[in-house]
Specification:
By secondary structure, the chain is α+β, with helices and mostly antiparallel strands. α1 runs antiparallel to α2.
């Protein structure tokens, strides 16, 4: 299965880079600037559906896709229960970066079995780097799909050896415990890039509110590496596509922190949700 997903990702990445020379927008899903949709989003969504149908039609499956989530209405959890495999994709995470010629956008794909994380990948086409988990091992790949490709196995870690914390400033405040002597609070905006560097241990954690597809490939990789997605202020960790964590639109019900368990308390002492 992972080989087919990697071949799709290679094809999709090439297409994205070629279409980026003349980005054609299709409007916004809502009033926010960040909800931009391009023809490339729709194209990658369509070829993913065709790829899954071609290779996995013998499986009981569904596709959860940012561009087509409305097809399920409010009945998505019943659909999830009725299928064995769930393929989750964000065709372009960071569309606003993609459309404005910034490199930190990517493709993220997660495979779930009975709503539990099974495999995942995150690919950043412009910098030609990828992280993927094949169900047994995780790898960090540089110079992706080239002859000089470098693949390094990633192993579970106890904590992250860095002072960087990711988060969106419109959602989070810094507490009196925060100090630049201890940490830096940064925002790269696109969740795919912030997840990518958190998985690599280049960030202590990522404070977030996102949709499932934003972290589609991240959750399976994170689980293997010993990184958990916690509801802020609790010890409750996400272990799959559950109504405990996600609403019927596949958005997180609560603000969350993704990190190693040994870093969680320190992050929560320095960062807190903004008061509404």
């Amino acid at each position: 299965m992972i080989d087919i997903l990697l071949k799709f990702t290679q094809k999709a990445g090439r297409k994205l880079k070629s279409m980026r020379k003349n980005v054609k927008t299709m409007g916004n899903k809502d009033s926010s600037v960040s909800s931009l949709v391009t023809q490339a989003d729709v194209y990658i969504s369509d070829i993913f559906a065709k790829t899954v149908k071609k290779h996995f039609s013998h499986l009981s499956y569904m596709i959860i896709d940012e561009e087509k989530i409305t097809n399920y209405g409010k009945d998505i959890f019943n659909k999830i229960k009725s299928t064995e495999y769930q393929f989750v994709i964000d065709p372009i995470d960071g569309t606003i970066q993609y459309a404005n010629n910034h490199p930190l956008y990517g493709i993220t794909i997660g495979v779930y079995k009975n709503a539990k994380p099974l495999m995942g990948l995150i690919y950043l086409p412009e910098i030609e780097e990828m992280i993927y988990f094949d169900g047994k091992k995780a790898y960090y790949v540089q110079n992706c799909f080239k002859k000089n490709e470098i693949k390094t196995e990633l192993l579970p870690q106890a904590k992250a050896d860095t002072s960087i914390i990711f988060g969106h400033p419109w959602l989070w405040d810094l507490t009196s415990e925060f100090s630049t002597d201890k940490a830096l609070f940064l925002d790269y905006f696109a969740s795919v890039s912030q997840c990518f560097y958190t998985l690599l241990g280049k960030a202590k954690g990522y404070c977030m509110w996102l949709y499932l597809w934003d972290i589609a490939g991240t959750l399976p990789i994170a689980e293997y590496l010993g990184i958990k997605l916690y509801k802020y202020g609790s010890n409750k960790a996400c272990n799959g596509i559950s109504p405990d964590f996600f609403d019927s639109d596949m958005g997180l019900k609560d603000l969350c922190v993704m990190c190693h368990s040994k870093d969680y308390k320190e992050i929560c002492s320095m960062v807190c949700p903004k008061k509404q």
